[in-house]
Write a structure and sequence with these properties.
The chain is of the alpha+beta class and about 1000 residues long. It is built from seven helices and 75 strands. Strands 19-18-24-25-26-27 form a six-stranded mixed beta sheet, with no helix packed on it. The chain is elongated. Keywords: Cell membrane, Kinase, Membrane, Transferase, Transmembrane, Transmembrane helix, Two-component regulatory system.
Length: about 1000
């Protein structure tokens, strides 16, 4: 009876050990549906070296970048358009995508956008579907047709040759082509299988098409027929499509696990194993099975993961784009599940009874147990059980909430309480109160927020009523500068303390940041109301950490994380705009060697490298118990090298060194370009397969260009972060895009730029590549700086030339005017000399004769009459000269008035009547001085001739305007004249000379009764 009981107990213990080994070894498997791929019925998937996935689906052929499915037809720039269902796809190492369609094989080159159909012999069967594709040893093997079915080989090495028919069978359909362990090919149909040997020799190998296949992440794979089980490495363990068993020599096989096999056909291996991180994965019926393969250890344990796949369809399992996880789908049915084996970087500590703690202080006691203060009480964990649940503290707890704690070198723990006893000392499980020793009333009942032991061994506490100094020898506490009621720190809530390189204390408070020299009492304040460089964007501070004499990190409640230089002010600020998940910072801690900051926020934990700018955001998705972390609720265990962080939903821990090793680095992909084109006014989207080959050009009038980005990371592509910079001639800072995968270029100044784009995963792992895209922003030709400079120079030259020519013309005009005035003055001087001088000479002669020669009264009277006439003529001549000099520019009407005055002064003394006939429409232009002078003298000469010689009674003066200018007619009714000059007379000749001087003419017309002088002058002259 005892023997019968021992055997089942052995089985139970073995099963328990197997399960324990399984739990200890198997990594958690994340699974989630792919919301994009699940919109189509996937038949086959292949990934290219650049990081894109190519999806053959019932709806056609697609390119997948982790965020968007793009039909292949939208990528084709040259070649035919694909129609109908895509059956198989394979991407080779050169980037060419081979697509099996219902009407044949196609080759697409993403770099050029060229699509071509592979020429094949004429089909004689029922259809030309490409049902099998295999890239193997530098060639593409594919199967075509049904009844008969054919196998072709297409060399991928240049120079490429046409596809060669290797083998043909009169019946059936080629469903799969696989390489075996010997390097030969296995060809599978629905009911038969063959082995292709060298030279095209074919050998039937089985009556059924079942096969087992093992694929590795590096692309290698092996296939064997299903009549032989797969042997696992490192032990006598074997695997079939539904059983895992152990077979040892001289012992019967022992079944370790069973499951329902996956539904399969000739196209799907009966057992399709994918090996990833020393774990085998394959599909069962409605589940995923995982088997960890280890060189040493207990028997392998099998893990079952339910999968919601359609069981009546062929189940497929394949590697994702970056080969760090798996895709599972039912062939032809919507629904693709992403699978990622991943060790959670953070582990949340459970609490006995399932209670959720809002944690405060974290530390270890003298016995090594973890001590956790929370709003629900104090909890502890055994020192030798890092994953054990937290249990309530069994010892004395004088304060309800342990708000902060500080372990001393001797193992004792100083505890600051909330709203109770201010500070206590824990030795073992006994508390000793640190009593108030100040002269003023005890500030008990106020919270102590932070504790610090400086390098000199002094203990400091900061709380709601300022800064306190602790004396553990006397078990007393006193407030710093207690005797000074005006001391600013008495009215502050000290949230955090940090010691500087020179022993100064940095205090974060609700009224800004203070720097205190404890020895001298010197205090410097940083806040929003201080002048630069002591100004901060906010005064509500929660954390402070001195990482370098010139680097003080300050965590704020509403302005993110600040980097402060003590003398230069704020040097850097991380906010939501710079990628910080929350602007409310709870704590800042920097475990040695201090190159990495751990920043707790109200929306997760951030790992930040100040030198490189790399940042990792850790949330509940990475195992954090809660995203809302509590202020000062963090502690680094330097012995075990663990970082503990607490929040409103519990306590978590992680090993920082586990995150310093870079995980898989995805590739950064440029997936699309949406650009506004001004000519014509359209918005066009081009889907890309990598970097822009010719760069990006923004033409004049283009409003924007949007670049679409993605990562070859299929776990959380929407959580990837992107940064960019646009360089022209000098360096440029990196700009954060955050999780937005759209980069818009807009409003660029004309010129040539280089656009650099980089990305990182949600954990801060940078991408393997940085995209560099040449960008040229053009402008209208008349807006180019060179054109404007040339136009400005031309306009300046034209202006200078115009001013110069204007000055030249003005100078010449002044010269002409001066010459004309000079000539006029000379003529006036000549006239004065000839006319007035002659008359004055006559007056002088008559005067001398009257004085010296005796005359009769009659002679004397004649002499006096002659003297009077000469005097009047001289006065008239002088009057005319003065008038012509003083009048300045005169109009024709003013000249006519002068002509009337002269006629009235001259003709009545000679007994002549005068008549003026002036046309009513006569113009009134301003006359040139030369024209005015000569016109008037000709007129006077004509009147004097009438007085002297005509013996007339009436003089008629007529002034008319014509197209050629002015016409002056002086006519008399005297004895007439033939128009020829009198002997010794100069009057007619002078009139001709004066008329020619102004471009006019004078003609003499005898009248039936009298004589007329006609003067015609142009007004322009």
């Amino acid at each position: 009876m005892l023997t019968k009981l021992i055997k089942p107990l052995q089985w139970l213990v073995g099963a328990w050990l197997l399960l324990a080994g399984l739990v200890g070894r198997t990594q958690p498997l994340e699974q989630q549906p792919d919301r994009v791929l699940s919109t189509v019925g996937v038949r086959d998937v292949s990934s290219d070296p650049t990081g894109f996935a190519w999806v053959a689906a019932r709806q056609g052929m697609f390119r997948y970048d982790g965020r968007q499915l793009v039909p292949l037809n939208q990528l084709v720039r040259q070649g035919p358009q694909l129609r109908g269902e895509a059956y198989r796809v394979a991407a080779d190492s050169a980037g060419t995508v081979w697509v099996g369609m219902h009407d044949g094989l196609y080759a697409f080159v993403p770099a050029t956008g060229e699509l071509r159909q592979v020429p094949l012999p004429r089909l004689t069967g029922r259809h030309g579907h490409i049902n099998a594709l295999l890239l193997y040893r530098g060639a593409l093997w594919f199967g075509r047709g049904m009844d008969p079915c054919q196998v072709f080989r297409l060399s991928l090495r240049p120079p490429r040759q046409p596809a060669r028919l290797v083998w043909q069978h009169p019946q059936g359909l080629i469903a799969a082509i696989e390489p075996d362990s010997a390097g030969q090919l296995l060809v599978f149909s629905f009911e038969r299988s063959w082995r292709l040997g060298p030279g095209g020799r074919v050998q039937p190998v089985a009556s059924l098409s079942h096969r087992y296949r093992v694929q590795q992440a590096d692309g290698s794979r092996r296939t064997q027929l299903a009549r032989y089980p797969l042997r696992l490495p490192y032990g006598p363990y074997f695997l079939t499509d539904s059983v895992l068993y152990e077979r040892r020599p001289s012992q019967p096989p022992r079944v370790l696990a069973r499951w329902l096999r996956n539904h399969s056909s000739a196209a799907v291996p009966r057992l399709n194993v994918l090996e990833l991180d020393s774990t085998w994965y394959w599909l069962g019926s409605g589940e995923l099975l995982a088997l960890s393969i280890r060189r040493q250890g207990p028997p392998p344990g099998l893990q079952h993961y339910p999968l919601p796949l359609a069981r009546e369809w062929n189940g497929w399992l394949c590697f994702n784009r970056d080969r760090t996880g798996l895709w599972a789908f039912a062939e032809g049915m919507p629904g693709v599940i992403k699978l990622r084996p991943r060790q959670a970087p953070i582990q949340a500590l459970p609490v006995a009874g399932g209670q959720r703690l809002s944690t405060r202080s974290i530390g270890r006691g003298a016995d090594g147990r973890l001590l956790v203060g929370s709003y629900s009480g104090t909890f502890t964990q055994a020192a030798d059980s890092p994953l054990a649940p937290l249990r309530r503290w069994p010892g004395e707890a004088p304060g309800r909430v342990w708000y902060c704690s500080l372990r001393l070198p001797d193992g004792r723990v100083v505890v600051g309480f909330e709203n109770g006893r201010s500070v206590g000392l824990l030795a073992g499980q006994r508390f000793q109160e640190i009593e108030w020793a100040g002269p003023h009333p005890d500030p008990t009942g106020k919270t102590i927020f932070c504790l610090l032991r400086d390098r000199a061994g002094r203990l400091w506490a900061g709380g709601q009523q300022g800064l306190f100094e602790l004396d553990l020898t006397r078990r007393t506490r006193t407030r710093y500068r207690e005797g000074d009621p005006t001391w600013p720190l008495h009215n502050c809530e000290i949230e955090a303390l940090s010691e500087g390189a020179n022993g100064e204390l940095w205090l974060a408070s609700n009224r800004g940041l203070y720097c205190l020299q404890p020895a001298t009492g010197a205090l410097r304040h940083y806040g929003p109301d201080e002048p630069a460089p002591y100004q901060l964007p906010t005064g509500l501070l929660r954390a402070v950490l001195v990482s370098h004499p010139d680097s003080v990190w300050v965590g704020t409640l509403d302005a993110g994380l600040l980097l402060l230089h003590p003398r230069r002010g704020v040097q850097r600020q991380l906010t939501l705009g710079q990628g910080l998940p929350s602007e409310a910072v709870a704590f800042v801690i920097a475990p040695r060697p201090g190159r990495v900051l751990w920043v707790g926020t109200h929306n997760g934990l951030v790992r930040y490298e100040p030198r490189t700018g790399r940042r990792s955001d850790l949330t509940t998705a990475e195992g954090l118990a809660t995203n809302e972390l509590n202020r000062q609720s963090s502690w680094y265990d330097s012995v075990r090298q663990r970082l503990y962080v607490g929040g409103v939903g519990g306590l978590s821990f992680l090993e920082p060194q586990s995150l310093t090793t870079a995980e898989h680095q995805p590739r950064l992909l440029l997936t699309g370009l949406t650009q506004h084109h001004a000519q014509p006014d359209i918005i066009r989207t081009d889907y890309l397969t990598g970097a822009l080959p010719q760069g990006l050009e923004l033409a004049p009038g283009d409003a924007f260009a949007d670049l679409a980005l993605s990562l070859s990371d299929d776990v959380g592509p929407e959580l990837g972060r992107f940064m960019y910079r646009l360089r022209s001639t000098g360096p440029a800072p990196w700009q954060e895009l955050g999780t937005s995968n759209r980069l818009r270029l807009q409003g660029l100044e004309p010129g040539d730029y280089t656009l650099d784009i980089r990305g990182e995963t949600e954990l801060g792992t940078p991408t393997r590549n940085v995209l560099r895209v040449p960008v040229r922003a053009r402008t209208y030709w008349w807006r180019r700086p060179g054109v404007w400079a040339a136009l400005t120079g031309l306009l300046l030259a034209v202006a200078v030339g115009g001013v110069y020519r204007w000055q030249q013309r003005r100078g010449r005009r002044r010269e002409r005017h001066w010459q004309a005035e000079h000539a006029l003055r000379q003529r006036i001087a000549a006239d004065l000399h000839d006319d007035v001088g002659n008359l004055l000479t006559q007056i002088s002669m008559h005067s001398d004769l009257l004085r010296e020669t005796p005359h009769t009264p009659a002679q004397t009277r004649d002499r006096l009459d002659a003297l009077a006439i000469a005097s009047r003529q001289a006065a008239q001549q002088m009057s005319d000269v003065v008038w012509s000099l003083d009048a300045g520019p005169l109009r024709l009407s003013q000249l006519l008035d002068r002509m009337r005055d002269h006629a009235q002064e001259l003709l009545p003394y000679a007994g002549l009547d005068v008549q003026f006939r002036v046309a009513p429409e006569l113009p009134d232009p301003v006359l040139d001085p030369a024209l005015l002078h000569n016109f008037y003298l000709i007129y006077k000469e004509a009147l004097h001739n009438v007085v002297k010689h005509a013996r007339a009674t009436t003089v008629t003066v007529q002034l008319a305007a014509a197209a050629a200018g002015l016409t002056l007619t002086v006519a008399d009714d005297g004895r007439g004249h033939d128009g020829r000059p009198r002997p010794g007379g100069r009057g007619l000749a002078n009139m001709q000379a004066r008329a020619r001087a102004v471009g006019g003419t004078v003609r003499y017309e005898p009248l039936p009764t009298g004589f007329a002088v006609v003067l015609a002058v142009p007004l322009a002259g």
